[in-house]
Amino acid sequence: LAASRKLGEAVNPTKYASVEMIERETHFNAMNPFWQAPFAYGAALVLLVLSLGFVASRPGETSTLGRGLYKIGMAALLLGIVLEVYGFYLRVRISGWAPVTNMYETVIWVALVSAVLAFVLELIYGRAFAAIAGAGVALLGTITAVNVPLLDPSITSLTPVLRSNFWLAIHVLTIVSSYAAFALAWG
Which of 86, 113, 158, 179 is deepest in the core (most CB within 10 A)? Predict the structure, then answer.
């Protein structure tokens, strides 16, 4: 094994994967955070909708059970966000470039940014509607990404138009994030 690695590095030192890179990709494939995120988003959606059912007789007040469901729902939303952020962290470390280079990553990114925007809006206004919309959009996006065969999750080489990592990170992430804001408004 060591001799094969040494030969591979001698032929092409920049393209041969290190043991650390291989272990990182193996961990990413074994954990598969983008497949776990829909469960968190689904739980958040259900819990947040249920929390709306426990409104007390006075407007703006909720029962103890309603507050508990709301807090657990927000924690589930945060868990989905953390799973997706970790998945993107690993994917960027594996590929070496910013996300949203294919349709699979774009759909996942829209789901993530929608959930983050909804979480922030929920922290500001505290009315549950933004979190419900964000959890719904994120659930729809992640389920679509992991179940539609046309959205290929494999990490491949970049198309020539995306080879500038600076413009990929600035321009493409900004544009796709605007899709997330639109999706949240739609939700």
Answer: 113
